[in-house]
TrEMBL record:
GO cellular component: bacterial-type flagellum basal body, rod
Keywords attached to this entry: Bacterial flagellum, Cell projection, Cilium, Flagellum
Places the protein is found: Bacterial flagellum basal body
Protein name: Flagellar basal-body rod protein FlgC
Annotated ranges, domain Flagellar basal-body/hook protein C-terminal: 108-143
GO biological process, one term: bacterial-type flagellum-dependent swarming motility
Assembly: The basal body constitutes a major portion of the flagellar organelle and consists of four rings (L,P,S, and M) mounted on a central rod. The rod consists of about 26 subunits of FlgG in the distal portion, and FlgB, FlgC and FlgF are thought to build up the proximal portion of the rod with about 6 subunits each.
Family: Belongs to the flagella basal body rod proteins family.
């Protein structure tokens, strides 16, 4: 595995964690949304990761030198939460039903923040891996001087 493939794998991890953070932020922003264009309250979304082969721009050049391809991470799908919405008694709300209950998205802001911290840590781990690879390249160049 070449150093460029290591960078490609870490870059795929960073992109996946960024997409995960975007979905979490969307969930937090819509935690009180009771009306969507599809009707009903907002549905919490979650990202599903999958491993995928990484092809770097240099792969064609180095393909003969590499025996096995490297696997990065990608997003296979974004799934919506299928749990029923939280029903809260708010008779004065414009979206209240005949009994005075309003359907709110079923989510916990605390859980979303924990997931966001996990995405942040995953992103930081990939940045640290890229920094380590960059240091390895720099040290190798210094040895050749």
């Amino acid at each position: 595995m070449s150093l460029f493939n290591l960078l490609s794998v870490s870059a795929s991890g960073m992109a996946a964690q960024r997409a995960r953070a975007e979905v979490i932020v969307e969930n937090l922003a819509n935690s009180e949304t009771t009306r969507t264009p599809d009707g009903g309250p907002y549905r919490r979304k979650d990202v599903v990761f999958e491993s995928e082969a990484q092809a770097s721009p240099f792969s064609a050049v180095f393909q003969t030198e590499m025996s096995a391809g490297s696997m990065g991470v990608g997003i296979s799908q974004v799934v919506e939460d299928s749990r029923p919405p939280d029903m809260r008694y708010q008779p004065s709300h414009p979206d209240a039903d005949a009994r005075g209950y309003v359907a709110f998205p079923h989510m916990s802001p605390a859980e979303e923040m924990v997931d966001l911290m996990g995405a942040t840590r995953g992103y930081q781990a990939n940045v640290a891996a890229i920094s380590a690879v960059k240091d390895m390249v720099s040290k190798s160049i210094d040895l050749m001087k």
